[in-house]
Amino acid sequence: MTGLTPGVRLVLGGILGLLMISSGVTWRLIRKGPAEKYAELAARVKSWWIMVAIFVVAIGVDRRLSIVFFGFISFLALKEYLSLIPTRRADRRVLFWAYLSIPLQYYWVYNGWYGMFIVFIPVWVMLLVSARMVLIGETKDFLRAVGTLQWGLMLMVFSISHQAYLLVLDPERGAALVLYLVVLTQLNDVAQYVWGKTLGRHKVVPTVSPNKTVEGLIGGILTTTGLSMLLAPILTPLSVPDSFAAGLMIAAGGFLGDITIGAVKRDIGVKDAGTMLPGHGGVLDRINSLTYTAPLFFHFLRYYYY
Amino acid sequence: MNRLLRLCFFAVIVRGIVTIVLGLNVRHRERLPKRGPAVLAANHNSHLDTMVLMTLLPLSLLDRVRPVAAADYFLRNRLLAWFALEIIGILPIRRQRSAPDEDPLAPLAAALDRGEILIFFPEGSRGEPEQLTEFKSGIARLSERRPEVPVVPVFMHGLGKALPKGEAILVPFFVDVFVGQPVRWAGDREAYMTEFRESMIALGGEGKFSAWE
User: How many CB pairs under 8 A join A and B?
Assistant: First the structure.
């Protein structure tokens, strides 16, 4: 368990405490009943336990395993996305190529080849996928097909691979940086939800996500920035003003990532992107915010600190 | 030896591919039969259909599960025949009668009498990916023969995208599997086929599938 520095352990202990409190509260709600009313909440908390356990193993054991794990998350997310959107039969082989970009992208991460990591999907894969699609010769809906595929690769593979690159960016403190990003992103989701549920009155984007409120958004931003400043000295090299900026960025970015995937789901007409995570939906429903926060946090950190 | 190979094949390779490369979204899993005799009747789009249906049932039932498959296709050479019979465990069925009085359903009825669970594709062949073709009346004849055996309709979507007929490359997609209520024999073939068809269409209607054209 090389990645488990004292700071990381402290934060993991905090998460364990939060999970125990959530389970305790859920258990009491169910006992007061009616149990069916809280079945979804119970499923969600249980899924959190499993996700946290897998995540701790994935970042705790060693860097190679962490990178494979994040690659697998990209694979699940891309598979969910491609199963959700309309695709063309003629493009079956192109989709296969698109999947192959995942091991390559994470191989660049593993090697720390920053130049390739940053141009591979936006340049090479974009040109190759378009060319492969043209050579198949089907022009009906070509623009839609090539556009949706590249957009999916950008969010599910390119964006998500940024959290893996944090491990290479700082070999000493990589796991702590990943933890900082993921904890803030996920707690921001929870905080926006809880503030929205308790105080929410004014909708932010009613046509995309009717449950998102101004009160939830502001409550989430305050909670997340508070937490980002609290956790920064334990997990990151960020100065106090920079940790404030990082918190703002993660809170706003998380919100945007969430509603962006929300817009995709609304366009297609589904509520959840999948069923892998009981109480949450699919993998995409859990990492939607990370598709924005991972690249934002990574480039902020890299520009000012590495 | 072959039995062990079969167990390893299904426990490791098939389950690995079905749960990791593909990924299932199963609705109404509780409607699946817990023991034989029973029939799982599904729509057919891909060679993977059989693999997915077999992973729906627990490994403890593996010895009793027999996919019904065309003898002319799967027994056409020795290697394929060994794989189909010993590893997949198919119950070969002749699609064309060689003699007018031959009874193609006899081996199926015998298997049900042994308490086995049959995997049956009433469409007869894989056809065009992700499109239902006409269900043939074989399922009604079988049900007429063994009216007490539950026939569970299963609607699947996604495998025709992942591995359609005539393609060799598997492309990962999530697969929807919707299990229906058993269709019971009520004395009339035509009425049975109508009920079966409607049940499949209703199951298909539970999902929201994006275009694949």
Answer: 49
State how far the Cα of A184 lies from the Cα of A223, in Å rounded to an integer: 9
The span from the first CA to the last CA of chain B, in angstroms, equals: 44
* Per-residue CA distances from A293 to A183, A219, A262, B168, B179 (Å): 11, 18, 16, 39, 39
Contact A87 B161 (CB under 8 A): yes
HSE, CB side, 13 Å, CA atoms: give it for residue B131: 10
Print the SS3 string covering B20-73.
HHHCEEEECHHHCCCCCCEEEEECCCCCHHHHHHHHHCCHHHHHHEEEEEEHHH
Q: What is the pLDDT along chain B (213 residues), one digit of tens a residue?
A: 888 999 999 999 999 999 999 999 999 999 999 988 999 999 999 999 999 999 999 999 999 999 999 888 889 999 999 999 999 999 998 877 777 777 888 899 999 999 999 999 998 878 777 777 778 888 999 999 999 999 999 999 999 999 998 889 999 999 999 999 999 888 888 999 999 999 999 999 988 888 787
Q: What is the pTM of this model?
A: 0.93
Contact B143, B185 (CB under 8 A): yes
The complex's ipTM?
0.89
Q: Give the model confidence (pLDDT) of A271-305 as tens digits.
A: 888 888 888 889 999 999 999 999 999 999 999 99
Pull the structure tokens for residue B96.
């064309």
What is the rounded distance in angstroms from the CA atom of residue B190 to the CA atom of residue B195? 9
DSSP calls for A234-290: HH----HHHHHHHHHHHHHHHHHHHHHHHHHHHHHT-S-S-SSBTTTBSHHHHHTTH
* Contact call for B174 and A79, based on CB within 8 A: yes
Tell me if the bond preceding B129 is cis, omega within 30° of 0: no
Q: Label residue A256 exposed, middle or buried (CB < 10 Å: 0-12, 13-18, 19+).
A: middle
Residues of B in Cβ contact (< 8 Å) with A80: 174
Which ranges in chain A belong to alpha helices (H)? 6-32, 39-60, 63-84, 92-111, 114-119, 126-136, 142-152, 160-169, 174-199, 214-235, 240-268, 283-287, 290-305
Distance CA A231, CA A225 (A): 10
Rounded to the nearest angstrom, the minimum Cα separation between B56 and chain A is 16
Q: Say yes or no for a CB contact (<8 Å) between B212 and A87.
A: yes
Closest CA to A174 of A94, A66, A22, A257: A66
**Yes or no, beta carbons of A87 and B169 under 8 Å apart:** no
CA distances from B206 to A132, A141, B33, B116, B183 (A): 35, 27, 21, 29, 18
